[in-house]
Amino acid sequence: ELKVEQNPLFLSMQEGKNYTIYCNYSTTSDRLYWYRQDPGKSLESLFVLLSNGAVKQEGRLMASLDTKARLSTLHITAAVHDLSATYFCAVAETSGSRLTFGEGTQLTVNP
Amino acid sequence: GAGVSQSPSNKVTEKGKDVELRCDPISGHTALYWYRQSLGQGLEFLIYFQGNSAPDKSGLPSDRFSAERTGGSVSTLTIQRTQQEDSAVYLCASSPRSGPETQYFGPGTRLLVL
After folding, report:
1. What is the pLDDT of residues B9-32, one digit of tens each?
2. Which residue has the higher pLDDT, A74 or B98?
3. Any bridge partners for residue A61, and if so which?
4. Does residue B72 sit at the A interface (CB-CB below 8 Å)?
5. Cis? peptide before A8, omega within 30° of 0
6. Residue A50 and residue B103: Cβ atoms within 8 Å?
7. Which of A42, A45, A104 sits opposite B42 (nearest CB)?
8. Distance of alpha carbon B52 from alpha carbon B16, whole angstroms
9. Is A3 in the B-facing interface, judged by CB distances under 8 Å?
10. Averaged in consecutive runs of 10 residues, what is the pLDDT profile of chain A (111 residues)?
11. Strands lying side by side in the sheet with B5-7
């Protein structure tokens, strides 16, 4: 059974600081997704990572994938309040299409 | 273009009643997924459609849950004899096809079983 673990689960940081969210998964996969969820809202797609060594950046967020280590990271650079949300990583098993989600990281950026 | 839409946005029902939740995927998307999100269980996969067939329904928690998709478009998730533990947000997603495509999520239906 595929397991996906994120850490930390809760992150409070100051504006302007950098931090990294980690996503570990338990079985072979070459498809990893990052989503953002604002309170009471649905999931917004941030990144799709499809190969070992893949790196994608959008604004202050950068995601990477190491399939050998079964690890993805979401790096936040110079955080701003607007980044406050819950971030989920999700993994698709190589043979299927269903996504298995991590527990989510609730990020709060304080002024 | 229009995104994934779901209805109703909120549903309150009494224990034991049946409910139907509807999902309209993005036009042209052949793959459709149902997930649910609850405080205790996080985000869980329920069922996946490719066209009108469901190659993976392994996430349905009991035989009270069923889903269908007609015309390769709209899908309905039915919960029979609802229980309080069915209370959750039911999310629908679609993608152009199965595989590595991004799954685009709808706004969800918030179900409360009293």
Report:
1. 999 999 999 999 999 999 999 999
2. A74
3. A58, A76
4. no
5. yes
6. no
7. A104
8. 29
9. no
10. 94 95 90 94 94 92 95 96 96 82 96 87
11. B5-7, B19-24, B75-79, B65-69
